[in-house]
């Protein structure tokens, strides 16, 4: 399967809905987690945005939506019996943790970095845009802490990051979690079941994946057009 046709899971280390989808993906659809390409999504800073050829498909959420997400995510976390500690973002630069993911991925530890970073942000409430915390996360999983903490300053990683942002634009990813399979797009935690069902149905003859469990229900998205368990 070529990279252009590989099913994709767009995730953001910033988004609580992406975090919940990640947990569900691993717990309920481990075969799908292994099959898909994991692609980070983040809002570009001025330097990254200036390098893009198009307009990044993201709009800031309203105060009303922000307050709703606080309530909704807290409810979903309780339902899933997941510990939740809300972080406080002070002038975040999202290239810092997300380009560090590229460092970890190249070391073969991308999944471990995602797990540790989600835990740090959503279970411990810590600032993952703090370079010292990124270095701590990297060291804990065996990744070069200096390389991870300084990833946003590396011109090659910046270029690779911009290429990912261009892919986000081409795929029309306006929020996370976002799943892509061919021409089909799925946005939100509760769309994961549909994405997995389609993927399994198409690939069963080739890979022998088990049929999806009937009646699976997803958890509960962000731009101001609506809400289906995802975040912009």
Automatic annotation (TrEMBL):
Q: Does the keyword 4Fe-4S apply?
A: no
Name the source's superkingdom.
Answer: Bacteria
An example Pfam family from this entry, by short name, is: DSBA
Domain (DSBA-like thioredoxin) spans 9-199
Task: Locate the transmembrane regions by residue number.
Answer: none
InterPro entries, A to Z? DSBA-like_thioredoxin_dom (IPR001853), GST_Kappa/NadH (IPR051924), HCCAis_GSTk (IPR014440), Thioredoxin-like_sf (IPR036249)
| Gene Ontology MF annotations | isomerase activity
The record, for SUPFAM superfamilies, names: Thioredoxin-like
For this UniProt record, the keywords arranged alphabetically read as follows: Isomerase
Q: Specify the protein name.
A: 2-hydroxychromene-2-carboxylate isomerase
Which Gene3D superfamilies does the record associate with it? Glutaredoxin
Where, if anywhere, are coiled coils annotated? none
- How would you classify this enzyme at the top EC level? isomerase
What's the EC number here?
A: 5.99.1.4
Its family?
Answer: Belongs to the GST superfamily. NadH family.
Q: Which catalysed reactions does the entry list for this protein? A: 2-hydroxychromene-2-carboxylate = (3E)-4-(2-hydroxyphenyl)-2-oxobut-3-enoate
């Amino acid at each position: 399967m070529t990279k252009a046709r590989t099913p994709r899971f767009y995730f953001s280390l910033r988004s609580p809905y992406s975090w919940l989808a990640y947990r569900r993906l691993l717990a309920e659809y481990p075969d799908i987690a292994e099959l898909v390409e994991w692609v980070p999504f983040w809002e570009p800073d001025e330097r990254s945005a200036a390098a893009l050829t198009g307009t990044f498909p993201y709009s800031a959420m309203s105060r009303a939506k922000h307050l709703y997400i606080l309530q909704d995510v807290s409810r979903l976390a309780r339902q899933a019996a997941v510990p939740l500690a809300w972080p406080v973002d002070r002038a975040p630069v999202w290239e810092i943790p997300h380009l560090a993911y590229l460092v970890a991925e190249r070391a073969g530890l991308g999944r471990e970095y995602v797990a540790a970073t989600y835990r740090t942000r959503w279970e411990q409430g810590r600032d993952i845009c703090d370079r010292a915390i990124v270095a701590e996360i990297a060291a804990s999983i065996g990744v070069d802490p200096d390389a991870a903490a300084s990833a946003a300053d590396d011109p090659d990683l910046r270029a690779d990051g911009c290429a990912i942002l261009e892919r986000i634009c081409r795929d029309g990813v306006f929020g996370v979690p976002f799943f892509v399979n061919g021409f089909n797009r799925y946005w939100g935690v509760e769309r994961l079941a549909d994405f997995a069902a389609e993927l399994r149905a198409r690939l069963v003859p080739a890979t022998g994946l088990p049929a999806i469990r009937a009646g699976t229900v997803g958890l509960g998205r962000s731009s101001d057009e609506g809400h289906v368990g995802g975040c912009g």
